[in-house]
Amino acid sequence: MKKLVIATLLVLMAVSFGFGQTNVVVSEWRVPFLNSLTGSIAAIGEFLQWGANYAADEINAAGGIAGKPVKVVPVDTALDPQKGSVEMARVVKDSLVAMGPVPEPVIMAAMPIAVENQMVSITATTSYEYASQFFPWTVSWFPPTLDRLPPLVVAWAKQFGDMKQVVQFIEPYGPWPGMADAHSKALKSLNIKEQKAIEVPTDAVTFGPLVVRALDQNPDGVILVCNAEKAAKIIKELKSRGWSKMNHILVFSSADDAQLYSTGGMDLNGVQVYNYLNLDISNPRWDKFKAEFAKAHNGNMPFSLSPNYYDALYMIKEAIEKTGVTGDPKKLKEERKKIADYIANVKGFKGLLFDWDMKDGVPTNKPTYIFEIQNGKKQLVLEVKQ
Amino acid sequence: MPLSLYYYLSITAVNILMSWALYVPYRMTQLHFITIANMMISGYLAGYLVLHVHVPFVCALLIGFVVGGIIGYVVSLFIGDAPTFAVVIVGFTFIYITRTIVENLSIVGGTMGMFGLPNIGGNPVAHRWIILGILYGLVVLCGFLIYRFDHSSIGRAASAIFVDKELASSLGIDIKKLGMLVQTFSCTLAGGVGVLYGFIYKSFHLDFFGFALIGVYMTVLFVGGYSTQWGPLIAAPILYGVPLFFPPAVQSWRIVIYGVMLILVLVLKPEGFITRKSVYSIGLALSRKREKVIRS
Questions:
Q1: Is the pLDDT of residue B244 over 80?
Q2: Tens-digit pLDDT profile for residues B5-45
Q3: Cα gap A195→A206, rounded to integer Å
Q4: Nearest residue of chain B to residue A110 (CA atoms)
Q5: Cα of B269 to nearest chain A Cα, Å
C-alpha cells in the first residue's frame, strides 16, 4: 500500500511537472548574432556582443528560457555586405530567431534574406527608417526620427534664450542626414534661424577649415551630426578658435561613445549630448550591468547602445516563453511567426533601464535624455518625453 | 539550392567578373578603379528605373551596360594612354565624385540607400536562378572574349605595352586606341555587374561600393595572377569561399591572413599563383596526355 501511494505521488509529481512546462524540444536555444566583430567598428561590435553574452549568462543562471539554456552564437559579418549575406543565408536555414545584423550596409544586404525566409532578426542599433523596411521580421528600437528628435532639440534650445542662429555639422552617412533634418524641423518650430550646414566628409582628418566656415556665419549654437571622433575634434577646434558657450553645442546620440570622451577630453566640459542611455538611473539589474561592464572594459561605463542586445535577448526570451514556442524544427515557420507577432506589440517590456511598449514594431514610450558633459562624465540636464 | 550556396556562387561570379574588369586594362599596366564608380552609377540607375519608372529588369540591365560603356569611352578619350598612376587617381576621383552625387540624390535614397528591389521572375526562386544564369553566362562570355583577346594580336600588343611602352610605340602599336578599347570594355562590364550586384541584395547602399571592394578585387587579381585570366577565375572562389569555412576564432584573423598572403605572394611569387608559364605547362602536360591516349 505504501509503495502504491509513493508511486501514485511520483506519477502525480511527474504529470504536474510536465503540465508546468511547454513541450520544448531543444536542449539549448541558440540565437545567432550577426555582428561586426572585426573591421572598422569592431570596438562597437565587441560591447554589443558583450551585452548579449551577459544577458545569456544572466538568463542561464536564472534557469534559462523555458527551462533550457540559451547560447548567443557570434557570427562575424566583418562590416562586409558580401559576408553578411552569406552568413544570414546560413542562419535562416534552421534558426528560430536571430539578432543583428550590424550596421546599415550589412542590414541592407542581409535583412531581405531574413524577410524572404520569414525569420525575425532584431536590428536593435539602427534607426526606424531602416528597420521599418523589414517589418514585421524585425522591430525598431527607436521611434521614427522625425517624431523623436524634434522634442529633444526643442528642449535643448529652450534652455538658452540667447540662441538665435544655429549651424549643423553633418556627416553624410546612413540615417544621419535624416536626423539633421529632424533637428532642422525643431529649430524651425522655435523660429531659430538655421544657417548653411557644414558637410563633414567621411574621410575628413582636419577640421579647422570646416570650423572656420561655420564660425564665419556667426552662429550662437552648434549641433554635431557626425561620428564621435570627428565631433570631438570639431569641438576642440571650436574651442581653440574662441568658442566659449560650451552648452550651446549639442552632440547627437550616435556620437556619444568612447571616442568622443577619449578624443575630446576636458575640452568637452559643458557640451550637451542627447541619448537614450542614462547612467544615473539606478535599479539592481542596471547597477550590476554597469559594474560588470566597467570590470570588463577598463573601468569604462556602458557606452551608447551597450544595453540594446541585452534587451533584445530578453525580448526573445519573453516571446518564447509567453507564446509557448517549443523550438521544434517541424514548427519552425509557425513559431517564427509567433515570435514576430509577439515582439511587434509587446507591452510593459522590462528593459534594462526602463519598461516600454511596442506598437506594430515601434516603441511608444521610451524616454530620452539631455546630458551635460563635465570631466568626462555625463550629468543629467533634462528628461524629454515624446 | 541552399540559400548560402546561391549567395556564395553569385558573389563569387561578381568577384570574378570585376577582377577581370581590372585584369583587362592591367594587361597594359592601367589599374582602372573607375570600374567601381561604374558599378555604382549603373547599379543605382537601374535600381531607380526598375523601382520608379517600372522599366523591365532586362532593359535596365542593358542600360546599365551601355551607361558603363559610355562613361568608360568618354573617360578613355582623356586617359586612354595615361600612365598607371594617373589612371588610379582618375579612378579614385570618380569614386569620390559618384559617392558625393549619390549621397545628395534623394531620388535614389541618398545616404540611406535604396530598398525593396523586386524579384526578377516574380518569385525568389526564379530570381535566384535568373541572377545566377545571367552571372555565369557573363562569366562564360567574358571568359571567352578575354581568352580571344589574350591570344590575339591586340593581346600581344597589350603585353608589349606592359613590358615597355616606348618600345611598343616604336613597333607601331597605337597605345591610346588600345587603352580606349580595354577601358571601355572593362567599364561596360562593370556597369552591368553593378546592376546585378544590387539585385543580388535587392537593395543598394553606398557602402556596397566602398574602397574595400578595390582591396578584394586587387587581392583576387594579384594573388591569383595578373598575367593570365585564369588567375582571378581560380582565386576569386578560393579567397572568398575559404574564409567562410574558417572556425569563428580564426575568422577574426581573416584580414591578417589576407594581408600576410598578399605580402608573401608579392615577395615570393610576384606574378601571382597562376602565371602564363604555369598555364603553358599545364596545357603542355594535358596535350601530352591527350597524345598518349590517342596513340594507345
A1: no
A2: 999 999 999 999 999 999 999 999 999 999 999 999 999 99
A3: 22
A4: B201
A5: 28
Comparing CA positions, the residue from A148, A149, A145, A162 lying closest to residue A247 is: A162
Distance from CA of A46 to the nearest CA of B (A): 12
* B204 DSSP 8-state letter: B
| pTM for this model (two decimals) | 0.87
SS3 for A121?
A: strand
pLDDT interval class at B283 (50, 70, 90): confident
Q: Do A93 and B3 touch (CB under 8 A)?
A: yes
Residue ranges of domains in chain B: 3-209, 211-296
Q: Does B3 contact A at CB distance below 8 Å?
A: yes
Contacts of A38 in chain B (CB under 8 A): 251-252, 254-255
pLDDT in tens, B85-127: 999 999 999 999 999 999 989 999 999 999 999 999 889 999 9
Q: Which residues contact B87 (CB under 8 A, 6 or more apart)?
A: B25, B30, B31, B32, B33, B79
| Low-confidence residues in chain A, pLDDT < 50 | 15-20
Q: Which residues make Cβ contacts (< 8 Å) with residue A266, sequence separation at least 6?
A: A375, A376
Cβ distance B203 to A173 less than 8 Å, yes or no, reads no
Residues in CB range of A115: below 8 A, 6 or more apart: A134, A137
User: Do A360 and A344 meet the contact criterion of CB atoms below 8 Å apart?
Assistant: yes
B6 touches chain A (CB under 8 A): yes
Asked whether B196 and B135 are in contact (CB, 8 A), the reply is yes
Residue found by looking up cell 533634462 in the block: A382
Of B3, B113, B254, Cβ closest to residue A78: B254
Residue with cell 555587374: B193
Those residues whose C-beta lies under 8 Å from the C-beta of residue A224, and which sit 6 or more positions away, are A168, A169, A230, A231, A234, A235, A249, A250, A251, A252, A255
pLDDT, tens digit (0-9, with 9 covering 90-100), for B38-87: 999 999 999 999 999 999 999 999 999 999 999 999 999 999 999 999 99
Quote ipTM for the complex. Answer: 0.84
Domains, chain A, ordered by start: 26-142+287-353 (3.40.50.2300), 145-275+368-384 (3.40.50.2300)
